[in-house]
UniProtKB/TrEMBL annotation, chain A:
Reaction(s) catalysed (UniProt annotation): ATP + protein L-histidine = ADP + protein N-phospho-L-histidine
Response regulatory domain ranges (all copies): 21-137
Protein's name in the database: histidine kinase
Domain annotation PAS: ranges: 155-225, 283-318, 415-486
Domain (Histidine kinase) ranges: 570-785
Stored NCBIfam families: sensory_box
TrEMBL record, chain B:
InterPro entries with a match to the protein in the record: Bact_response_regulator, CheY-like_superfamily, Sig_transdc_resp-reg_receiver
Chain positions found as 4-aspartylphosphate: D52
GO annotation (BP), single: phosphorelay signal transduction system
Keyword Phosphoprotein (UniProt): yes
The name this protein goes by in its record: Two component transcriptional regulator, winged helix family
Amino acid sequence: MIEKIQHSPHPETEDDPQHINILVVEDTEDDYNLIIRKIENEGYQVNSLRVETAQEYEKALETDNWDVVLSDNSLPQFDAISALKITRKKYPFLPFIIVSGTIGEEVAVEAMRSGANDFLLKDNLARLAPAVEKEIRDSKIIISKAAADEALKESEERYRLLAENIQDLVCLHNPDGSYLWVSPSVYKILGYSPEELIGKKHFDLIHPDDTANRKEEYSNLFKTNIPGKVVRFSYRMRRKDGIYIYVETILQPVFKSDELIRVLSTSRDITEQKLAHDLLIESEAKYQSVVESIAEGVILYDDEGHIGAFNKSAAQILRSKAASSKAFEKELLENFQFIKPNMSVYPQDEMPAPVTLRTGKPCSQVIMGVRDRGDLIWLSMNSQPFLQPNGNVGVVVSFSDITEQKVYEDRVTAVAQELTNLIDTANAPIFGIDWNGKINEWNQVTAKITGYAKSEVMGKKLIDEFILDGYKVAVTDLLKNALRGKDVTNYELPIYTRNGKVVTMLFNATPRRNLHAEIIGVVGVGQNITELIEYRERLELKVAERTKELNEALMKEKELVALKSKFVSMASHEFRTPLSTITFATNFIKKYLSRLQPEEVLRKLDKVEEQVGHMTYLLDDVLLIGKSESGKIKLHPVVINISDFCKKIIEEVSHSTKNTHKILFSISCKTKEISIDEKLLRNILINLLTNAIKFSPGKDKVLLDVICTAYKLTMLVRDWGMGIEKEDQEKIFEPFHRASSVGAIQGTGLGLSIVKKAIELQGGTIEVNSAVGKGTAIKIEIPFA
Amino acid sequence: MKKILIIDDTLHLLEEISDILRMEGYEVITAYDAFDGMRKISTSNPHLIITDILMPEMDGFELISKIRSVDKHQTTPIIVLSAQAAKENMQKAEELKANLYLRKPCTADELLSSIEKLLN
């Protein structure tokens, strides 16, 4: 149904005014063609489209840029009023002309009211082209006007928003300073409404102090006639409530044809910044005064290592009178010598400031000596990086004069070293332990005694490493006592040495205290008494030996005393019996002399002599025993002919025993001459032979065998007599012992004991071999001296 | 005639005492040890006994107690003639009811007067 007619080209004007896009709302094809032809006839080149319904119309409106709409009034499914309404919704200025066959007056009025631009009757289309032309033209004018209005409106709105919303105070002034226009922000800043300020002068709101000297300057500002010159300044302004605020203002003159007509001011409330700035100033002043007043010297170095600032103390400490940083730096470099604590030269690049500058790391408590024309000043120096205003890192160096402390410290250190040396080299073992029993002191003598070097034992537990098991508990208690403040004196402490030996220390433990008198450990001072102990042990051994000897001597002495007592009692008994015999015999003679024959008297006298002789022997024996017991007998060896000697003794014994027995004698000798104590040998032999004869009564012989070799003399005496009981054989050598079997046989009880002593004196032996009833054999051996 | 028994292991002393007592008119019996003495007491019933103390095998004390244990010798005078001087020996002799303790050596008169006294 929609037709689009492309008409033949039409001669065009330069502006191509005859080119028209026409949208036609028409149900009749003929009417449409008529309308289009009518316009083309007027010389227009028409581009047109016919629609019949609302949908087609709406779509067509969107698809092309129509210059005009021509609408029939009434269509079967559509009508002009509806089309107009659709049109005006979106295109208020698109010319809309009703072209109708008939039209009522009411409809026409209604259409015009609804915004139709014109209406024409189909039967009178002469006016169509001019109407179209006119409406298109009018529409264009209206459109451009509306666009201009809109642009203006937008621009105004933008300025208004800008002026109303900016935080700053924006004002327009007359050249005399009076307010022409004031932005709404004035209310927030100064408490006035814009209207209240119009006509007032700007100066009147400025703090009198701020205008006093500069009134001229201010007024000139508003009169300056240099185009484009912007002036910026700050001052205090009085708010409506009387409070002054700091503002910063920019003034901009506005010229018209070289004539100053307005001044634009833009002011900003800088009270907060100002206060902050003041605080900063104040703080800096304080900081400055602190830096200036502190006793520490402070020097600021910039990032190139040059001195930027220094305080008074820095100059004072270094005895400098330099006024400027530059002079100060020069003085430092040229006049001073820097020294390390060990008195060597301090290299420039090892000093704190260059080090911190190089590494960015702080240095602390650096001790440095500074020599200035002789005086040596000791400094303790810290350095720290800081951010300079220019963004680079500089160094702040602070230092204090510790010369006095240093001198004192050196002295204390020297004393401490001296004390340490004293302990270390003391000629006594000194060692220490801490609260945990760990070794913290170990001097040279201790190391020497134990064999452990100080470095090996430091930190080790004394008890675990050095104390003998049996002493651990005791020593632990001892050290605990010392840690509680009790002194321990003269404790004998055996300790292990490296080679496993045990040495004994005489040990004194004293609590070790710090400067505050708090106990921090134990110091042991010892004395190596191992030698003393060994000496003591040797002495004890000696004493024991001596005691034993003494005891032995005492025993011997006791034995001797007992022996003596036995001697006395025995001897008295042995003497009393012959004395009784003698007494009775002499009494007998005296009493009965008249009745006696001379023979009888002689017999009694013989008896007396015999008993006197016995007593004499007895006395000799007793004296001999006494001598031998007290060790007073000395050997007197003489050379004798052993054979002759024996024969002589045999003769004597035979005679004294009245020849009751024959003494059988045999001798076998390598040499006849031997060296021997003759007296002792004589005693031995007489006793043995006499005994043999005495204790073999009824027998007629005894035997004597003598053998001598180069080394010893052996003698054997044998009888066939009564023999000796077994239990008696051990006792027969005791003085005064007489065997049970001897019965009434006379004897002193000293014979064999004398024999034994005599043999022992010469280093010989005696052996008894006897059987009861069979006889006895006694063998003696005497080595030659 | 009174019988006196002398007991001593020293033969020559035994002889001397015997000689003296015989001269005084006593019948003398001798024994050279305690056993011999006991035998001779039972066989000859002496009126008085003189004994030594220190003798082999049985000493004088044992002999005295044995003599006193025989009924008819409970009162027979006993004279101890000893070289021993110890007090305890004298005491012991007294306890055993020996009548007299004479110490060697004593004189013939001492012995004779003691015997005379004891026999009357």
